[in-house]
């Protein structure tokens, strides 16, 4: 089975081949398209295979218990496919986006993608660290890609926080290796609770601290608004839509499959739940106070990650399915919002919230898409944002944890406050009485952004079809037997 | 063996302290690198077996030291060097834009 290897190798090869061809547009274009398509094909192939049962790829022919294996169950395969599709959308948007004239964008995005695919597919702890680091380093550079003062500042802040979190992760990995001499995740899951109490607790805490910072859980979120708001819009979409989700995926995988926190350390899960609830409220409140459009969207990401963490922290299969649903839905909603924010920024040359006043007159299509997207992320049916929050809060009620459902509802209310403010601003008549300059219509970008809205709508509308699939992905998380047999042979 | 562990923890601590207390971008870069160096030291110590030879199976005296941490240490050094180069690149660019290395003066993103 070679699809997991292909998913990592294709973007990595593209990333290192692209700079060789430099300015030969024809060659680089073909290469980008081939790599993006190849990744989607490999992703589809893997999802279909992994739906039937987990797929293990032994690298270099080593038995998975000695070597470094790639492991793909239905969840990781689906996330890999989401990454491949999300990448393709972001790359096409970036082609049309006038803010990116830098050819370095493409290799870096492929590098980011290779890191993400590796994070989703690896079955080895140290390998996980390496892939996380690849993802992070690519993100730092992409944030500062435009080379402007703000981008550099946001990128540097991201770099410092990201490096510290990586070092915490590495320290956790080293402690675990020192205690057990194993890096295979399945081996580790079996051993870790026999280690001395301090070693297991401290290393788990370090790993969660590191990945919590990567997924921007409040109070570890301070770097995110700066980085995501000062990056170019296609990059913001990738960072908010995929990169923070990689942290969430690792926390999910560790909590359920590897460590089985529910049985071994239930307090850990409760702590995650608390962090998630705080993130929802704090993220939305901070977003309310923002004057900069992209900064508002970035804080909204903090809150949305809170929903995912809440889903993880509740610990039940249904809640995890809701969290996974939200990972998918949020990618399309937030990517769409950042795409529209990019169009608005290019047309109006302004980043403040007030600048979108009268948008409906200037460019009706953008206003329509942006409003639909805002409605989607607020959590109003029939969009995916509503359905995933519904699944999470009903799981909370099922567990008898009413405050959880209450906070999710409160979050929807708070987000409605600022997103409705955006919509009313967009629909309001322009301030100036002079005839507004109609903004140039950029069909490529508009249509791609609209595509994201439509996908999030279909993800919500078709919930009788997609929800069982998300449940299946969550089941893969809880299937310890398959994980052990896949990684230990 | 224990005292090397203490040294590693001490270096890591110095790194964290520098990171939290210093305002100079270059010192932040040094702090990050110090922390990473401490971890490399820790990895190498973990694989060490007193009296063990190099991990090449030639003679069976005390058995080799654990070779895996050495590979991990190399990987960590490579990653650390790459990150350090990137950090310094950022510092150079930031200095070009702001004309200072003080993080308090480079604080334009607010909210």
Largest interface: A-B, 39 and 33 residues
- Rg of chain B over CA atoms, rounded to whole Å, is 19 Å
Our measurement of the CA-to-CA distance between the termini of chain A, rounded to an integer number of angstroms, reads: 14 Å
Secondary structure tally, helices of chain A? 21
Major β-sheet annotation of chain A: 2 strands, antiparallel
What is the element layout, followed by pairings?
The complex is a heterodimer of chains A (489) and B (111).
Chain A lengths: L2 H19 L3 H28 L2 E4 L10 E4 L1 H23 L8 H17 L3 H19 L5 H32 L4 H7 L5 H18 L8 H8 L2 H26 L2 H4 L1 H23 L4 H22 L2 H32 L10 H4 L1 H15 L5 H15 L3 H26 L15 H19 L1 H16 L1 H9 L1
Antiparallel strand pairs in A: 1-2
Helix pairs in contact in A: 1-2, 1-4, 2-3, 3-4, 3-10, 3-14, 3-19, 3-20, 4-5, 4-10, 5-6, 5-10, 6-8, 6-9, 8-10, 9-10, 9-13, 10-13, 10-14, 12-13, 12-18, 13-14, 13-17, 13-18, 14-16, 14-17, 14-19, 14-20, 16-18, 16-19, 17-18, 17-19
Chain B lengths: L1 H20 L3 H23 L19 H32 L13
Helix pairs in contact in B: 1-2, 2-3
Which terms would index this structure?
A: 489 residues, mainly alpha, B: 111 residues, 3 helices, 68% helix, elongated
Describe the structure.
By secondary structure, chain A is mainly α. Helix content of chain A is 78%, strand content 2%. Chain A contains 21 helices and two strands. Chain A has helices at 3-21, 25-52, 74-96, 105-121, 125-143, 149-180, 185-191, 197-214, 223-230, 233-258, 261-264, 266-288, 293-314, 317-348, 359-362, 364-378, 384-398, 402-427, 443-461, 463-478, 480-488; strands at residues 55-58, 69-72. A two-stranded antiparallel sheet of chain A has the order 1-2. In chain A, helix 3 runs parallel beside helix 14 and helix 14 (317-348) packs antiparallel against helix 17. The longest helix of chain A is centred in the middle third of the chain and has 32 residues, at 149-180. Chain A is globular, with a radius of gyration of 21 Å. With 111 residues, chain B is mainly α. Chain B has helices at residues 2-21, 25-47, 67-98. In chain B, 68% of the residues lie in helices and 0% in strands. In chain B, helix 1 (2-21) runs antiparallel to helix 2 (25-47) and helix 2 packs antiparallel against helix 3. Chain B starts with a helix and ends in a 13-residue tail after the last helix. The relative contact order of chain B is 0.14. Chain B is built from three helices and no strands. The interface between A and B is large, with 39 and 33 residues.
């Amino acid at each position: 089975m070679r699809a997991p290897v292909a998913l990592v190798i294709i973007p990595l090869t593209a990333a290192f081949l692209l700079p060789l061809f430099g300015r030969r547009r024809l060659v680089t274009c073909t290469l980008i398209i081939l790599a993006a398509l190849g990744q989607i094909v490999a992703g589809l192939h893997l999802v279909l295979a992994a739906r039937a049962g987990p797929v293990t790829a032994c690298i270099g022919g080593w038995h998975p218990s000695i070597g470094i294996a790639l492991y793909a169950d239905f969840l990781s395969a689906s996330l890999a496919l989401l990454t491949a599709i999300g990448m393709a959308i972001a790359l096409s948007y970036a082609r049309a986006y006038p803010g990116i004239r830098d050819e370095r964008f493409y290799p870096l995005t492929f590098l980011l993608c290779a890191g993400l695919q590796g994070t989703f597919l690896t079955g080895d702890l140290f390998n996980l660290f390496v892939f996380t680091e690849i993802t992070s380093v690519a993100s730092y550079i992409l944030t500062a890609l435009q080379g402007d003062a703000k981008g550099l500042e946001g990128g540097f802040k991201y770099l410092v926080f990201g490096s510290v979190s990586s070092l915490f992760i590495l320290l956790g990995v080293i402690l675990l290796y020192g205690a057990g001499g194993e890096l295979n995740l399945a081996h580790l899951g079996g051993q870790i609770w026999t280690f001395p109490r301090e070693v297991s607790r401290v290393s788990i805490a370090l790993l969660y601290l590191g990945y919590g910072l990567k997924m921007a859980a409040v109070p570890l979120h301070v770097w995110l608004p700066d980085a995501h708001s000062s990056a170019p819009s296609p990059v913001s979409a990738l960072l908010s839509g995929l990169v923070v989700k990689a942290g969430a995926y690792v926390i999910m995988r560790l909590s359920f499959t590897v460590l089985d926190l529910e049985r071994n350390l239930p307090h850990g899960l409760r702590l995650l739940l608390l962090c998630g609830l705080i993130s929802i409220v704090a993220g939305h409140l901070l977003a309310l106070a923002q004057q900069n459009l992209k900064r508002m969207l970035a804080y909204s990401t903090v809150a949305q990650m809170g929903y995912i963490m809440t889903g993880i922290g509740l610990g039940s299969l249904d809640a995890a399915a809701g969290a996974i649903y939200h990972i998918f839905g949020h990618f399309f909603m937030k990517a769409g919002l950042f795409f529209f924010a990019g169009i608005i920024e290019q047309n109006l040359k302004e980043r403040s919230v007030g600048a979108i006043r009268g948008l409906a007159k200037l460019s009706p299509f953008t206003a329509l898409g942006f409003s639909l997207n805002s409605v989607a992320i607020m959590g109003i049916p029939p969009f995916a944002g509503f359905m995933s929050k519904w699944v999470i809060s009903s799981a909370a009620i099922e567990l008898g944890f009413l405050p959880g459902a209450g906070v999710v509802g409160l979050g929807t209310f708070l987000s409605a406050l600022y997103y409705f403010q955006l919509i009313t601003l967009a629909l309001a008549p322009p301030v100036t009485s002079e005839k507004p300059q109609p903004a140039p219509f950029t069909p490529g970008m508009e249509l791609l952004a609209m595509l994201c809205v439509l996908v999030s709508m279909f993800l919500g509308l078709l919930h009788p079809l997609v929800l069982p699939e998300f449940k299946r992905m969550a089941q893969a998380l809880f299937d310890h037997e398959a994980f052990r047999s896949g990684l230990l042979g | 063996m224990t005292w090397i562990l203490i040294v590693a923890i001490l270096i890591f601590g110095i790194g964290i302290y520098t990171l939290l207390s210093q305002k100079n971008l270059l010192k932040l870069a040094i702090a990050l690198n110090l922390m990473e160096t401490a971890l490399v030291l820790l990895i190498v110590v973990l694989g060490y077996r007193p009296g063990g030879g190099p991990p090449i199976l030639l003679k069976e005296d005390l058995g080799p030291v654990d070779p895996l941490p050495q590979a991990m240490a190399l990987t960590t050094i490579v990653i650390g060097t790459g990150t350090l180069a990137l950090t310094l690149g950022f510092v150079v660019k930031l200095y070009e834009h702001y004309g200072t290395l003080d993080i308090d003066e480079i604080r334009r993103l607010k909210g």
